[in-house]
Amino acid sequence: MSNEAEGMADLHWMFDMLHHIDVGLVVLDSKYRVKLWNNFMENHSGVSSSIAKEQSLLALYPELDTGWLHQKLDNVFGLKTPIFISWEQRPHFFPFKSYRPITGIANRMYQNVAIRPISSPDGSIKNICLVVYDVTDIATNKMALSAANQKLRRLSQALSK
Amino acid sequence: MSTRVLICDDSKIARKQLARILPTDWDVEVDFAEDGQEALDMLSSSVFDILFLDLNMPVKDGYETLEALQSFEQSPAVIVVSGDVQPKAIQRVKEMGAIAFHKKPASAEELRSLLISLRLFSVGDDQQNKVVVEQPTAAEQFTLNECLQEISNIAMGRAASVLAEMLNVFVKLPVPTVNILEVSELQMALDYSVKNDSCSAVSQGYVGSGIAFETLLIFSDSSFPDMAKLLGVTDTITRELETELLMDVSSVLVGPFMAAIGKQLNIDFSHSHPLLLGQHVKIADLINEKKATWKRTLAVEIVYEVENYQISCDLIMLFTEDSVPTLENLLSFLVEEDE
């Protein structure tokens, strides 16, 4: 195989991996237009990549609190540093349904989101990437644990009286 | 007559590094001071032409030194060399009489062109004379603490600059402290820094090239009202809003700090998503002595304070014990490369 064909094959499996990894990947340009919308995003949102592409993320999800999101995205562009959003501050960044609709406790997917700057070869930041993690199990476990603790505290208070 | 140069920095590595990168064809006599007070004492007893001054130092910091120099009849040309690259820090030192500012660590070429542009040095000054600086010998060892303190110092300045840009404030920088701590000692150290206030903390794990550590960012809960004010939040402070403020400030403080550490060590660290360790808890509850499986940790602690606001947070890097030999090895390369 020639080097070029080998390079193409490498690119192919890399792209295949990015598309099918079980993590949401979205790349945006400085006008918040979608440049990449991977398989995870397609399947959970029901919006296909061909429709999402070139649209503004804010047009795709008008319900995303725009002022809030603008500030986050602009900070990543301006400060050139990743910004993290935890499920504890915003449980459902994207309005996705839970992965396990039958046996799972939660109806909606809890997400951690990392917004990272992507540097161009010249060092400038022209694109940013949103990485969306499904943390539904962690979130429901933690909430169940703290509810159980509260119940215990109430019980022990009642007993001591 | 040779030019008399005084290098004032609390870090031995920084003093040596700066002395090494002075133009080799410059006829100078170099002296060193470990803090602002020592520099002032030396300046009042003899005449120096140039003072290279660090900003974050114990006893008397760079600002206090600049202020004291204003009452001197004959004061040297002051070039501030600091890791604190906040625009307001640069502006402030220039207003206080410094003729130039240079970010740390400086390279020989950068320093050379700065000195030429300030007309303090010209090429062909006197090629015969060589710099009379005692070159560090191989026997001269820098301790792990000294190396770690200096790279943290530089990283801390970078992080403060990003935070200052986001909030449009001036962030006061301390001298980072480096210690090997036992579990109980760490609790005590944390207790001391946050006093009796309850606190909230975010933790993030880092690993790369055989070095593993955790960063802890601890906010005293009394910081929240002012932090909300600075970020332009007018809503009432709910638990979710506090988490939001915590995550934002932790992102901009820890991210650039780690990027600067990684760059200096030449490691592209993997890191976890930041985790909310606790909200409104007693600091002792953050680290549970009984549950801890580790015995000792190498800790780097930095206390950030925002000027004119009641905001203080503690950034602590905790290295695992088995990372220490690798770190020591890496840092020793770092020092050698400078020679």
Feature tags:
heterodimer; A: 161 residues; alpha+beta; Beta-Lactamase; 5-stranded antiparallel β-sheet; 5 strands; B: 339 residues; alpha/beta; Rossmann fold; Chemotaxis protein chec; 2 domains; 8-stranded antiparallel β-sheet; 5-stranded parallel β-sheet; 11 helices; globular
Question: How confident is the prediction overall: mean pLDDT of chain A?
Answer: 88
Q: Report the sheet with the most strands of chain B, covering strand number, pairing sense and barrel closure.
A: 8 strands, antiparallel
Radius of gyration of chain A: 20 Å
CATH-level-2 architecture of the largest domain in chain B: 3-Layer(aba) Sandwich
Span from first to last CA of chain A? 81 Å
Shape of chain B: globular
Structural class of chain B: alpha/beta
Question: What do we call the CATH topology of the largest domain in chain B?
Answer: Chemotaxis protein chec
Percent of residues in helices of chain B comes to: 25-40%
Looking at CATH, the homologous superfamily of the largest domain in chain B is: CheC-like
In short:
The complex is a heterodimer of chains A (161) and B (339). With 161 residues, chain A is α+β, with helices and mostly antiparallel strands. Helices cover 45% and strands 20% of the residues of chain A.
Question: What does this entry look like structurally?
Answer:
- The complex is a heterodimer of chains A (161) and B (339).
- Chain A is α+β, with helices and mostly antiparallel strands.
- Chain A has a single domain, classed as 2-Layer Sandwich (Beta-Lactamase).
- Helices cover 45% and strands 20% of the residues of chain A.
- Chain A is built from six helices and five strands; from the N terminus they run H-E-E-H-H-H-H-E-E-E-H.
- In chain A, strands 2-1-5-4-3 form a five-stranded antiparallel sheet.
- The model of chain A has no long low-confidence stretch (mean pLDDT 88).
- With 339 residues, chain B is of the alpha/beta class.
- Chain B is built from eleven helices and 13 strands.
- In chain B, helix 2 packs parallel to helix 3 and helix 6 packs across helix 9.
- About 1% of the residues of chain B have low confidence.
- At the A-B interface, helix 5 and strand 3 of A face helix 6 and helix 9 of B.
